Amino acid sequence: MGAVDSSSSSPVARSLHRFANPGRFLRISGRVLPFVAIPALVLTLGGLAWGLFFAPADYQQGDAVRIIYIHVPSAWLASGGYLALAVCAVLSLVWRHPLADLAAVEIGPVGAAFTALCLATGSLWGKPMWGAWWVWDARLTSVLVLFFLYLGHIALVRAFDDPTRGYRAGAILALVGVVNLPVIKFSVDWWNTLHQPATLSVSGAPSMHVDMLWPLLVCILGFSLGFAAIVMARLRAAVMERRIRGLLLAGAQGA
Amino acid sequence: MTHLGFVAAAYGLALVVGAGFAVDAWLRVGRARRRLEAIDPRRNRERVL
Amino acid sequence: MLRTRKGRRLAVVLLCLMGLGTAAGLTLLAFSDNLVFFVTPGDLADKPQPAGRMLRLGGLVETGSVTRARNDGKPVARFRVTDGRAAVDVEFAGILPDLFREGQGVVTLGMLRPDGSFLASEVLAKHDETYMPPEVAEALKKSGQWKPESGAAPPAGNWNTLNPRKSGG
């Protein structure tokens, strides 16, 4: 099923399939990875130190505001990671792209971890600020649903003896879950929630002072690069592991 | 610093999660590469990896 | 587009997503009354609720309405919650959260009493989306651009690059 049928390829499909060649992927990703991983480390550690020690406290929240330097990037990656999962699902279902299947398997646990981090840090902020660890408002509940979608995907892609069936089932779950993403984003605008509305928006000035905004943006960039680097490294390992399995299988059959 | 416990817990969690995944991915790549180099019959594997 | 196998698969995926999106949208619309975390005093005025049923009431704490007392050694706070259209008297026995302030948002869990006032068993502070250092808040208040008791901070463009140490407020 994973075979490349190049007979009817459009230019898009051809350029996609150039990356389907595992050897080429390993070569290119090996060259790119340091340029992602090192800035990720520098920006994340720098941004977190900036937020923790140098950014000002908030006029109302005091130092608890520093939790957002972790909470907001994790929340962004929780949604962004799921979007990447859904893109992999389309590539897998429509173009039968073999790397997309492996990528979806590797994105799942990382996305779930960042979603958990988002929920945990939100809780640590909510207790002193709202007065509650958890409330069932639309924003918090929809993010919890996102976390369960990740867990379901992780379990589903590993649940079949035939990996292809697992990939197919996981891709369908990832696509179904994508309706949750706009619900998360707009929950604070559509319904009364305890969670505050967005501070950063495409249109309009951010209602956050620049002394807090810059470290936050650095953290968002650092976390995103870190997510990309971790997924890329895991995908490299997965490609190599698949080749090892193939070689062992061929050896066993040849003997 | 106000709310020190909550802030410290949040940063601690973030470092544990981030470092955990990064180290795990690093070790997994190293393991897979060594394993592959040991059994890969092809001569030109340096070019591939 | 439908000529190739890939094209057909893409069409099927797109169709399924559209169907799913519509279904999800309609479901959310149908249940949207249950998805609100709290009702505002204005909602209560439009659609009166029976006394004794648990509900969450949210809004701003009306400026100058807070009185604190002690009853059997327990702190009791009385305040009015408003959304600009209507206001409800709230009584709460217990410790208020740190961010509870006049002019700030709160969400209270409790029930209406027959006289139309609200007996709260839990009060949560609702934070707004504004983040600023204390010096900037101080400078805005000093210059009269912002009276925190009477509502939210002025539009962010006015202050989010303000540097009180340099400009001296």
What does this structure look like?
The complex is a heterotrimer of chains A (255), B (49) and C (169). Chain A has 255 residues and is mainly alpha-helical. In chain A, 75% of the residues lie in helices and 0% in strands. The radius of gyration of chain A is 21 Å and the shape is globular. The two termini of chain A are 26 Å apart. In chain A, 50% of the residues are buried. Chain B has 49 residues and is mostly helical. Chain B has helices at residues 4-39, 45-48. Chain B is rod-shaped, with a radius of gyration of 19 Å. The mean pLDDT of chain B is 85. Helices cover 29% and strands 27% of the residues of chain C. Chain C is an alpha+beta fold. In chain C, strands 1-3-4-6-5 form a 5-stranded mixed β-barrel. Chain C has helices at 5-30, 32-35, 41-46, 134-142, 164-167, and strands at residues 54-61, 67-71, 74-82, 87-93, 105-112, 118-126. Chains A and C meet through α3 and α8 of A and α1, β6 and α4 of C.
Describe how the helices and strands are arranged:
The complex is a heterotrimer of chains A (255), B (49) and C (169).
Chain A: H1 11-18, H2 22-54, H3 68-95, H4 98-129, H5 138-157, H6 163-177, H7 180-190, H8 210-254
Chain B: H1 4-39, H2 45-48
Chain C: H1 5-30, H2 32-35, H3 41-46, E1 54-61, E2 67-71, E3 74-82, E4 87-93, E5 105-112, E6 118-126, H4 134-142, H5 164-167
Provide the domain count of chain A. 1
- What helical percentage do the residues of chain A reach? over 70%
Number of domains of chain C: 2
Largest sheet of chain A, in brief, is:
none
Please give the alpha-carbon distance between the first and last residues of chain A: 26 Å
Compact description:
The complex is a heterotrimer of chains A (255), B (49) and C (169). By secondary structure, chain A is mostly helical.
